Amino acid sequence: MHSPIQQYLDSVHERLFDVHGGEQPKNNPSLAEADPDLCGLAMTTADGYTYTSGDAEVPFSMQSISKVFCYAIALQDRGFRYMDSKIDVEPSGSSFKDLSSEANTGRPKNPLINIGAIAATAQILPDSDGEVFDKILRIMSDCAARQLEVDEISYEADRDGGMHNRALSWFLASWGIIDGDPLPAFDDYSRQCAILTSSKDLSIMASTLTNLGVNPVTGKRVFSRSVAQRVMSVMLTCGMYDDSGDWVSSVGMPAKSGVGGGIISVLPGQLGIATYAPPLDRHGSSVRGLAAHRILSRDLELHFVRTSKAGLSTIRAHETIDHVPSTTRRPESAEAVLAEHGCRAHVLEVMGDLLFSGIEVLSREVATFGSETVCVVVDLSRADHVAEVSIKAISRLATALANVGTALALVDPFDRLDSLLVPVDMRVEIFEDRNDALTWAEDQILIEFGDDSCFPDDSIATPLMFSGLDETIRKKFVSLLKREEYETGEMVRRVGDEFDGIRFIVSGEIHTMTAEDEGGEIIAQLVAGMSFGELALNEVYNQPFDVRAAEPTVVELLSKSAIEKLEKTDPEAAALLWRAIAVEGFIRLGQIMRGVN
Amino acid sequence: MHSPIQQYLDSVHERLFDVHGGEQPKNNPSLAEADPDLCGLAMTTADGYTYTSGDAEVPFSMQSISKVFCYAIALQDRGFRYMDSKIDVEPSGSSFKDLSSEANTGRPKNPLINIGAIAATAQILPDSDGEVFDKILRIMSDCAARQLEVDEISYEADRDGGMHNRALSWFLASWGIIDGDPLPAFDDYSRQCAILTSSKDLSIMASTLTNLGVNPVTGKRVFSRSVAQRVMSVMLTCGMYDDSGDWVSSVGMPAKSGVGGGIISVLPGQLGIATYAPPLDRHGSSVRGLAAHRILSRDLELHFVRTSKAGLSTIRAHETIDHVPSTTRRPESAEAVLAEHGCRAHVLEVMGDLLFSGIEVLSREVATFGSETVCVVVDLSRADHVAEVSIKAISRLATALANVGTALALVDPFDRLDSLLVPVDMRVEIFEDRNDALTWAEDQILIEFGDDSCFPDDSIATPLMFSGLDETIRKKFVSLLKREEYETGEMVRRVGDEFDGIRFIVSGEIHTMTAEDEGGEIIAQLVAGMSFGELALNEVYNQPFDVRAAEPTVVELLSKSAIEKLEKTDPEAAALLWRAIAVEGFIRLGQIMRGVN
Fold first, then answer.
1. Closest Cα partner for A584 from A327, A342, A336, A323?
2. Which region among A96-105, A531-540, B169-178 has the lowest average model confidence (pLDDT)?
3. pTM of the entire structure?
4. Which residues form the Cyclic nucleotide-binding domain (chains A, B) (predicted)?
């Protein structure tokens, strides 16, 4: 099947041929002679996949788009405070050729106009070989995920014809923004403008910014998060010269255009977009490129007002543990305690963003719980966008709960919290598995309101399944059992095995898991007293899960042949046995159905 | 428990007392005499909940913050094209008192500087009573969710002392931006600057913008989505006067300050924030207010680069229907077909945003499916942020799939798609319930690869549970059954009922549901051949769900007493019966366990 996104991009490309007008710069032969009908589109996603349409691999000179990356390199080298002393970040409200500097200090208004970009280039520290330009080309190549080259003809034209830029360079020197001879910076600036990139290259370079400094194709970190964030902010207000306000209103993405015919735009965290079409409008931006970005922003709702978190976080479910039990098989005495006191353990499921709004909704709900509350489980399995702010907020929530004597557990199956967790005093349990968290919550209730009988021993003589039977019959069943021992990791049952009996755990731990070729995920953890193997009674699927010993484990097998023998010799006992198995099946089905809902 | 968000806001309020400096305007007695130590914070969420700290209910005059709402009213009255012909949307790069107008036309650079705001006020169409100001006050009151009033002293001071603004007004008249006498517009402008609002009011007004035009407290739509979007865009580039660039870099939220000491900022879709503290910096913005917005943006990660969708959409799970069966009980012949051909029905679960990035990831995965694919189920239960763009993209995906003969079904439990759906030719099934979608997918496979035996009749003589038994014993069991009939809606079993036997559906439909006081959600839909009542075998919980007839339904009851009688008179048959019940229980447990995982 042809990708619908690809089809869409191709349709945008086609629509651009209805867009006409614009002229090409005459003072640079590379630009003047470019085929005016060339038109390329490229989009790179946050995971490094690039869609292209049209002439997306045709190289052209970056021109002013280089300013973005040059500023990023200088910020990375020199830090924010130093760079802010050299170059402001205010929109100039004027065109790219103006002399937009502060009256008193000469500080350029922003780094995306010529005077600011030359000033930024001058701040870049050279590589160990002493060459600033080599470093610029190397880092820009890192952003593009391939080795870039320079269009020497374009470079020479800009160097030899760049009277205005020479003047700006000398002004910068006269104000002390550049120390000493400004011509090396002028030269480096002219050369970086002539770096050859295709729309595809530029979309990957843009995605390195949207991906907060990490090139999503190579995985290499090129800039720090804060540098990428600052650069995109400045692109938003200063990127489109004196069209910035209209651009923000209608397109709403940080962007930068170049007189080479390229335009990039970035959707932070999501997309890098680049276009190429040589004819320019009077502001020096590609006519078809502008149209393409407008169309993409409108069709794909990329405007920052639309893409900002919609604050849709909701408490998807709020239950107490008696209504969403774990799948752990408990003794009857424990079941009774949980039925009575389970309402003291709350289980909340949050859906949506785990940014400020998600935590806010959660905090508001938790604040309504009464003082009888023993513990709270917050299930974040369906929450997204876990950020550092979430950790701080959860820490605040945990502290507030701890102050009123309530324990907090989180369900986070994707390990997102762990990676962000700083070693603060956060009294909160984190579980990968919802069922483990529910088991924990039940344990909290049983510890507070139950007695020893609620907790089965590590080693147990009688299977839970037989606990409701009278002494004589139970002894009879126990006499049929055959002991087996398994070592850690040993496979007890395999997906597809036919029913061979029911196994009861005497001591140790058993894991029920999906088949290895389907991920080997743990589905259930079984301990002493519990049974397994009954699911294979389904003759179409047989044994549906692998079963392994998680530690040295002793089980007792009620074999299929022992059951068949019992059916013949003592049908009354057999009826009681099958009744016990049936009851066990429906107890577990009921548990999981109440839990799932 | 004290809300952690409230505690946090109080801590920010406290930190502000370490921030000093600033002066109050001398030319307006209301502003000059305000207590410099007043300090109020307020935040209103997208669902209309307001947090406040400090002097958040102290009223003060809006001053320039009114420009935001005044521009919104004019846009709403006159449309974008007309307003753009009167006022540009470019940052002025200059202070609020400058004469920032286009050289040729006099068109003000943007609506958030004085000259632009006066021009915007002049465009507002009067209410039927002929009064422009009454309309301004009415709509601003709608934004604040209460009736606002004017500070007459402040108004008179600004009206009588507003020489500069009078000059700007006459300039606008001279250029024809205002038709005829500009003084009524000047007067309306001066009065709106004197409207009294508290931080709390302003946070609700701001949230009316973030909530795309709907006041989240009252639910009233005040502005259209596009007007709210435009206004927030202009606030981002032009809201903070000549500090806009720095503001965008460091705070990254659309905002507006006023010399009354107020500042508002907006996080689209999420939060309206307002602060009040009278002393101003040299740009005319509240010193403590700026500090507060900076702290909140940093701590809560509200910068637009951070809050933009992180593009984390992922395919959480990709299975085929044989691995994630529905809970529908099928005849054995159907089970065999599904085991063989189920790999032709794909089930994808998308987690994260259903904006462009979500659809993009989905499209890319679907494009890899082979031509043998019969149908695709996309489960959107865990996807968020369903927007119009999603619908367009899903429509494209459905069309692309239809072209290769593959059917598409979506699971959307929140009816988000329905409300956005436009009547296009979208060949896609939408299910609220995942299990219904899985049933649909199985049906697609059975239609293509099964025969009649795969589909049970609407009416069935023999319960599925007995289908594996031999003729004699099956007849014996059937002879024990007692017929019952239920009308539509009639309750068959209630939560808490003790086990009274097993019921088999002969014809009709039965719904298993959560108790009415817990929402009465449907858990399972059962049809002819299936059984219910076995879950009550759990003696702690008894019957865990309500059971109702969804239409006129005939069932046959194998009563508890009939079973007990059989156990005494024919234990061999009883053993077979309990075995069949046990097998049924574990078949269903296996089904749900495979489905849940």
1. A327
2. A96-105
3. 0.75
4. 465-566
Residue positions of B in the annotated binding site for substrate? 64, 114, 165, 189, 241, 259
The complex scores an ipTM of 0.72
B597 touches chain A (CB under 8 A): yes
Contact map slice: B 244-273 vs A, CB within 8 A: 244-246, 248-249, 252, 267-271
Question: Which of chain A's residues have a Cβ under 8 Å away from the Cβ of B581?
Answer: 578-579, 582, 585
User: If contacts are CB pairs under 8 Å, which of residues 157-196 in chain A contact chain B?
Assistant: none
- Residues A353, A311 contacting (CB under 8 angstroms): yes
Instruction: For the sheet with B195-197, list strands across it.
Output: B60-61, B195-197, B149-150
Query: Per residue, what are the HEC states of A143-155?
Result: HHCCCCEECHHHH
Check if B387 contacts A (Cβ < 8 Å): yes
Nearest to B308 among A267, A544, A582 (CB): A267
pLDDT tens column, A564-588: 999 999 999 999 999 999 999 998 8
Q: Which two tokens stand for residue B464?
A: 């599925």
- Pick A589's closest partner by Cβ from B361, B572, B588: B588
Q: What percent of chain A has pLDDT over 90?
A: 53
Establish how many alpha carbons lie within 13 A of residue A212's alpha carbon, considering only the half-sphere containing its beta carbon.
11
Q: Return the sign of the alpha-carbon dihedral for residues B349, B355, B361, B364.
A: positive
| β-pair type (A428-431, A407-411) | parallel
Per-residue CA distances from B458 to A378, B317, B447, B503 (Å) = 43, 34, 17, 17
pLDDT at B444: 93
* B571–A567 CB contact, under 8 Å: no
- Alpha-carbon torsion, ordered A417, A422, A427, A432, to 10 deg: 20
Quick check: B382 and B316 in contact, CB under 8 A?
A: yes
Determine the average pLDDT of the residues in A125-144. Answer: 93
CB proximity B318 to A under 8 Å: no
